[in-house]
Write a structure and sequence with these properties.
binds flavin mononucleotide; alpha+beta; about 220 residues
Length: about 220
């Protein structure tokens, strides 16, 4: 198994984002998720594993729409309920999507990607060799302003649990759709906060790389 080496924090992929590839549209409408896609849940669970070798091929927009809806999309439109739980329904985790074409925030209510920063910041989402070449990195960001009603002692734990639930949704979607993924805690929080143009109350806590498996042919 290609395990995480324990652990240095020197940036190995540079400290600057690259120019975005293409026009970086302000908003990207995602296709509605295909609720009949994929293998049964028990089969997906039997496939779930961390993978650290990725094809550089981009994912289709349809796959992106399915992936992000699975991650934390709205599955109960009447209540605004999401596919992942959150404490008191605080929905305090934003999903940022770093792609060659720019850094976007997934807007769950509209199922759109909203441009945050027109740069390719994939290289800044971690330290490992596939970071910067795999087509997609998700970054889970806590929005502190949504947790102000919660006792301070619980905020870190609860938001970490929410991010964990979202990342497991992504892992199961990937297992179901034949995609490779690995969740990553080995991130440079400060570099990432800059690259994603985050505010003071927004903290990146976890990243997750997604792509086609390395031996997938074009
Ligand atoms: C909170 C958390 C942080 C992790 N951080 C990293 C990481 O930074 N890089 C990495 O390659 N794997 C990371 N992993 C993946 C674990 O190394 C992996 O889950 C573990 O080796 C077991 O392998 P499996 O997922 O294939 O069962 C992380 C997993 C979790 C739950």
């Amino acid at each position: 198994m290609n395990e995480t080496p324990w652990l240095t924090y020197m940036p190995s992929r540079g400290t600057r984002a690259h120019p975005a590839v293409g026009a970086a549209p302000t908003v990207i409408d995602l296709p509605r998720p295909d609720l009949r896609a994929g293998v049964p849940l028990m089969t997906a669970l039997s496939f779930r594993a961390s993978t650290r070798e990725f094809s550089e091929r981009e994912l289709s927009l349809a796959t992106l729409g399915d992936l992000l809806w699975a991650a934390d999309g709205i599955n109960r439109p009447l209540s605004g309920g999401r596919t992942a739980p959150s404490p008191h329904g605080a929905q305090e985790i934003d999903i940022y999507v770093a792609m060659p074409g720019g850094v976007y925030r997934y807007d769950c209510p509209t199922h759109q990607l909203v441009l945050k920063h027109a740069v390719d910041a994939r290289n800044l989402t971690g330290y490992q060799d596939f970071v910067g070449t795999a087509p997609l990195d998700l970054v889970y960001v806590v929005r502190g302003s949504k947790l102000l009603d919660m006792p301070a002692a619980q905020r870190d734990t609860f938001s970490a649990v929410t991010a964990g639930a979202i990342s497991q949704n992504v892992s199961l979607y990937c297992a179901s759709a034949g995609l490779a993924t690995v969740v990553r805690g080995w991130i440079n929080h400060r570099l990432l906060a800059d690259a994603l143009s985050l505010n003071e109350d927004e903290t990146p806590i976890l990243a997750q790389t997604v792509g086609l498996p390395a031996d997938t042919r074009a």
